[in-house]
Design goal:
about 700 residues, alpha+beta, Nucleotidyltransferase, domain 5, Alpha-Beta Plaits, six-stranded antiparallel beta sheet, RNA-binding, ESRP, mRNA splicing, RNA binding
Length: about 700
Amino acid sequence: SLVVLFGATAGAYGAKLGSDERELILLVWQVVDLHSKKVGTLHKSLVKADNLDLSDQCREVSGLTPEGLGKAEPLDRVLQQFSQLVSSDLKVLGRSSYTLCSDGQLLIRQVLHPETSKKNFLLSDCFYSFYDLRKEFHTCYPSSAAVKDQTIKTMAEYLGLGTDEAEEDFGVWQVKTMVAIIFSMLSEGCNHVFTEPETVKHKYETGPCSKSETVDSETVIRARGLPWQSSDQDIARFFKGLNIAKGGVALCLNSQGRRNGEALVRFVNSEQRDLALERHKHHMGSRYIEVYKATGEEFLKIAGGTSNEVAQFLSKENQVIIRMRGLPFTATQEDVLGFLGPECPVTGGKEGLLFVKYPDGRPTGDAFVLFSCEEYAQNALKKHKEILGKRYIELFRSTAAEVQQVVLNRYMSTPLIPTLPTPIIPVIPPPYTIATGSIRDCVRLRGLPYTAGIDDILEFMGDATGDIKPHGVHMVLNQQGRPSGDAFIQMKSADKAFMVAQKCHKKMMKDRYVEVFQCSGEEMNFVLMGGTLNRSGLSPPPCKLPCLSPPAYAAFQTAAVIPAEAAALYQPQALLPTTRTPQASAAAPPAVTYYPAQAAQLYMNYTAYYPSPPVSPTTVGYIAAPPGAVAAAATATHTPILPQPGALVRMQGLPYNTGMKEILSFFQGYQYAPDDYNGLIQLSDQARSVLQAPKEWVCL
């Protein structure tokens, strides 16, 4: 038997059903005996929603009113009545089992499952298997319209069914027409058989993912804005009703191994992925989650792994994974098992523990633990911030993908999540100009949410993003390298800056209003160098020494050569000269690292580099020295500091009272440059500012 089911929400209707997160307000159903071609009683039930504010489309299409819905039963009671009435109708027809049949997948996947999940009650098993009438119709009538273009009305018109929608109540006509379509498909000319129902997974399955695995880019999405403590099960619950692939939730970590509020999710097919995209800005608790397309390559970069140790740890499927953080470096497996205690036994004992280590074998203080059931995991989480040794231990839910990221990050000693490194001396290839005069062609954004990124600013700017200069977005950081809530944006003209300031001032970004002021390039540069703008005017930078400021790029006019002892320390490996061979000429000119003159002006590191459309370089690199600069350096009257390439080493972390004698003693037994230890160089203030270190020495 089939139970033909139709429903409607308080919001969007048709192809957008469920995309606006509105609640169910109507259910209509009827039992159909496929063998005897008999039907049961047609039932219509209104559902009382928590929010009775109906959309205009809902009012127009359904004819329902908030007053009528206010007298209805809530969803859980309606679903209980549904089960009882269906069972009663089946007995009358002499049947015992049934499968749901709906018009498309939206009612089941995008409305019923998400809403019941949020309201914390379980759907009966019948809602985890159903027939999609549109797919069945297209299978029976291949010449009909594509599945995505089908509606109840187009299917009825294709069959020539003469039903009049205006004669019946909303929902009743839809169910009666669906029943008529099913009977047409069962007729002698078609003899359609309903054999392969759609299924909804009861539970998300965890598991490892190999880098050699092929992942279809049409099945992957990126979810952004997740609470940092959310687990893979929380994300699976957010996408309840959609089938996530086994091990298909990968929480993204930053370069410190901490969650950054993003996750990559892989679905079983592109159809499920497309439905997931419709949940853009749906809510997880009080936070809305952004959902975007992603690629299979991105998913493998996060979730893929090849470590035998990790593979063996994750080989036990359907385990609950808990991450422990802050363990004493001397902690052993016995210590961890004793900390967890008998109330939360670890799967496999010591085999269910995985300690995370640095590449040199030192412990990081992190570990992952396997538990066989949710009860044991909950008992373990109750020990959050309890003491082991002299340290409190943090416990969090984790995922297989997080295990691979954390452990493999340590193996590779580089983060899998690509982040723009803090450049030592940034140089951009073309000479993009930055405003430096008194023309007020810039705007200052003040009061930004600390979580705001470049995408949020561009969305905040709206249509004005087209008037931003290339590389004209500058986020201001505080002395700790964290967002300060300020940003500067270079506009194409003073008029554009004025219009933006007028239009966007005190406009909301997330839950905060942002102040927008017009300012000049001179004022902007002053802040980027570490100064402040306030009502009393300009305050000087807090540091007199010239330091680093990545985005303060200016027009390059004349060449300049950074002090060789500083520049040589940061030459990219690809640009380092090869080791000198015995045949090499002794009179070869010294190696020169070339920087544009304005790039040599190094300022306070108060900003982070955020490229903006339409041109966005993917790397920050070095500009090759023009021949003239090399010739000028070769003829200069300075003594080269490198007797041969590769002879320079840098010492970092020296005690502040270290002198030449201690360093020479440290290198006892090695041959260093002679000439009264002229090869031992204490860095000058200018070079030290480049290195960003209090006291360092360079040895030749």
